[in-house]
Amino acid sequence: AQSVTQLDSQVPVFEEAPVELRCNYSSSVSVYLFWYVQYPNQGLQLLLKYLSGSTLVKGINGFEAEFNKSQTSFHLRKPSVHISDTAEYFCAVRPMNTGFQKLVFGTGTRLLVSP
Amino acid sequence: NAGVTQTPKFQVLKTGQSMTLQCAQDMNHNSMYWYRQDPGMGLRLIYYSASEGTTDKGEVPNGYNVSRLNKREFSLRLESAAPSQTSVYFCASNPQSGQGNYEQYFGPGTRLTVT
Fold first, then answer.
1. pLDDT band at B103 (very low <50, low <70, confident <90, very high)
2. Is residue B54 within 8 angstroms of chain A, CB to CB?
3. Among B99, B81, B89, residue whose Cα is nearest residue B31
4. d(C-alpha B101, C-alpha A4), whole Å
5. N or C, which terminus of chain A has less Cβ within 10 Å?
6. CB within 8 Å of B39: residues ≥ 6 apart
7. B34 and A CB contact within 8 Å
8. Cα separation of B20 and A68, whole Å?
9. What is the dihedral of CA B11, B17, B18, B24, to 10 degrees?
10. Which whole-number Å values give the CA distances from A49 to A46, B8, B76, in the listed order?
């Protein structure tokens, strides 16, 4: 079974400051990794994903994440945040096993960007 | 493409009433999912349908039933609503294995209040 831990339930930051949202996972098999973003009163949309290859993954809106297999982490970063980045961010994993597999989500981190 | 659509957007029920949440996708995806989102708990899987004609329980299936009406549509039914079912419900779909895309696509959500 897999589990995803997002230790920070809320991260306040000032506009134009850098931010890192942490994600750690546990799995007995290799996994694919995802970050989703949920803007207020909306559904989730994919921010970025790691399937294979380079461990540094770039996503939409200037976000990037780095997969660290030894530390089982997939932290999300942005060098300079905007007010419009205020949202909830979810980390998720999916086993690489063949056949039908489900996504396992973390509990989310609320990013609050203030002027 | 409309993607994943859900109806209704909002609903208020009294305890004991029943209702069906509708979900449809126009992306020819094989798999569909129902999640509930509660503060501090992230997304929890209620039921899923790996392919047309099959449905399975997720983490929190009690009090719910589902129907995979056809490849496009996947409905969630509350037979006798309880206040504990007050939540935001999301439907999602995914092409599933063999197509190289493991991303799930989410609908805009249904905000349900049970009084």
1. confident
2. no
3. B99
4. 21
5. C
6. none
7. no
8. 43
9. 0
10. 8, 30, 29
Q: Do B103 and A108 touch (CB under 8 A)?
A: no
Alpha carbons B52 and B41: distance in angstroms, whole number:
29
Q: Look at residues B27, B28, B68 and name the one whose alpha carbon lies nearest to residue B47.
A: B68
Distance in angstroms (rounded) separating the CA atoms of residues A115 and B66? 45
pLDDT tens digits, one per residue of A16-44:
999 999 999 999 988 999 999 999 888 99
* Interchain contact B106–A (C-beta under 8 A): yes
The CB-side HSE value for A61 (13 A sphere, CA atoms) comes to 18
Rg of chain A, C-alpha, whole Å? 14
- Closest Cα partner for B52 from B28, B68, B75, B66? B68
